[in-house]
Amino acid sequence: MAMQNGSSQTPWVRHRRHSNEDVQEASKANETHLLVNDQNKYRSMLVRAYSSVWMIGGFALIIYMGHLYITAMIVVIQIFMARELFNLLRRAHVDRCLPGFRMLNWHFFFTAMLFVYGRILGQRLVNTVTSDKVLYQLVSKLIKYQMIACYSLYTAGFVWFILTLKKGMYKYQFGQYAWTHMILIVVFTQSAFTVANIFEGVFWFLLPATLIVINDIAAYFFGFFFGRTPLIKLSPKKTWEGFIGASFTTMISAFVLANIMGRFQWLTCPRKDLSTSWLQCDPGPLFRPEYYTVPKWFPEWFPWKEMAIMPVQWHALCLGLFASIIAPFGGFFASGFKRAFKIKVCNLKHS
């Protein structure tokens, strides 16, 4: 009986030990995941850091070169955005490709570009050529008739579209026509305001763009090291820890960077022409520091008894709040967009 009991208990003991080992291995696996010891993640982080350094360096060089070069960068980005969206539209209906419709898309694109930038940069172009009478008169007339030229080009595109209609494909072609206009609205609406802001002072372009970058980087690192709670199903890698940590980082950065950038005339002075010469101007009311006495309840070791704060720093807090709360939803929109069309990030980058 003793032997029978011993023999009957032995498998049970062995099974229990085996179960404990499985639990320990599972806990180790979870611990490894929580400590973020995955070498692939660190390799990905190094690649991102390396590419970010080059991108930030190139961006800083363009900022240094001035308003006109920044605008050129925006135009190039617009062209690539439109190209990607036009290609995506055709890939979704690859079996119904129409000859010549690609050229019609770009006709409407450059018509919209002439309309938008003609209105924003027209007077600045006139101010640039005032020294040459012949060129001044020519440019003035072109700007004068810019609206009728845009209307004529759009009308020509409309007639072109009507002439390409084919029996049995009317619904598809009108859908393509509507999508073309939606793409132009998406591409030009925000970028038009961006270019207008650039010529009111690079500050109003550089600070929001920098805050978006800071928010994205901070969200990545906070999520990488502390992320536990998923934020949204569209982006499983986004976490509440990353979102909250990035929000605090962005708000602090907005207040500090506004003070630093507001000291440089190259960033705060508006540009009235399309030249690349150096700028000098009196600082506007937003960039004149106001002095505040430090409250008595502050610790005695605090080094400043008076603090200089620019009014623009309070505006920067609003920009930081926008970059923290609203801007991440642009990434969520992109995630949903990619899933809707079943495309990958690499396709977006290389197409």
TrEMBL record:
Any one GO cellular component localisation term in the record: membrane
GO molecular function terms listed in the Swiss-Prot or TrEMBL record: phosphatidate cytidylyltransferase activity
Membrane topology according to the record: Multi-pass membrane protein
Pathway the protein takes part in: Lipid metabolism; Phospholipid metabolism; CDP-diacylglycerol biosynthesis; CDP-diacylglycerol from sn-glycerol 3-phosphate: step 3/3
Assigned keywords, A-Z: Lipid biosynthesis, Lipid metabolism, Membrane, Nucleotidyltransferase, Phospholipid biosynthesis, Phospholipid metabolism, Transferase, Transmembrane, Transmembrane helix
Origin superkingdom: Eukaryota
Record protein name field: phosphatidate cytidylyltransferase
Upper classification of the organism: Eukaryota, Viridiplantae, Streptophyta, Embryophyta, Tracheophyta
PANTHER family in the record: PHOSPHATIDATE CYTIDYLYLTRANSFERASE (PTHR13773), PHOSPHATIDATE CYTIDYLYLTRANSFERASE 2 (PTHR13773:SF31)
Family statement: Belongs to the CDS family.
Chief place of localization: membrane
Region (Disordered): 1-27
Pfam families on file: CTP_transf_1
